[in-house]
Amino acid sequence: LRLVRLLRLTRIQKLVHRFNLHFGFSYAFLALVKFFAMILLTCHWAACLWGHLGLRSSGSHTWLTVLQESKGGPDEIYNGPLHVYSLALYWAIISLTGVGYGDITPQTMTEYCVATLCTSLMASLWAYVIGAVCGIVST
């Protein structure tokens, strides 16, 4: 049933095409919006996965517990789902851009594998978006 709902996402392309015809958006503008949406969605998925690892991991030594030990602060920052999502989104955005400050780091082998996968995918996406934006700007 949920897969059928996902198939509705194909309607977005038709909707964008209809808006383009009605409002006359340029290709460059639509491409930039598409790239922004791709980056936003990828960071959201990575943050959800990373936050899930911190909250639901079976061990007591996770990226979230180490962050709490090193930074301190109130417990609700490290226990509330919205706060943990904010921390995980911060990690995803910092990992996407390749800066990686090192304050949120993997602690278990599962976290290392997920971090490697997420960073590889997000770095590839970032390179694609930067290259495509440069191509659009140059024309």
In DSSP terms, counting alpha (H) and pi (I) runs of 4 or more, how many helices? 7
- Beta-strand content estimate: under 5%
Helix-strand topology string: HHHHHHH
Q: What summary fits the major beta sheet?
A: none
Class from helix and strand fractions? mainly alpha
- Tell me the helix content: over 70%
> How many beta-strand runs?
0
The low-confidence parts are none
Distance between the termini: 44 Å
Q: What is the radius of gyration computed over CA atoms, rounded to a whole number of angstroms?
A: 18 Å
| Average pLDDT for all residues | 87
Envelope shape: elongated
Descriptive account of the structure:
The structure is a single chain. With 139 residues, the chain is mainly α. The protein is 78% helix and 0% strand. It contains 7 helices and no strands. Helix 3 (27-56) packs across helix 6 (81-97), helix 3 packs antiparallel against helix 7 and helix 6 crosses helix 7. The longest helix is centred in the N-terminal third of the chain and has 30 residues, at 27-56.
Task: Outline the secondary-structure elements.
Elements: H1 2-7, H2 11-23, H3 27-56, H4 63-71, H5 76-79, H6 81-97, H7 109-138
Give a brief outline of the structure.
The chain has 139 residues and is mainly alpha-helical. It is 78% helix and 0% strand.
Describe the structure using short key phrases:
139 residues; mainly alpha; single chain; 7 helices
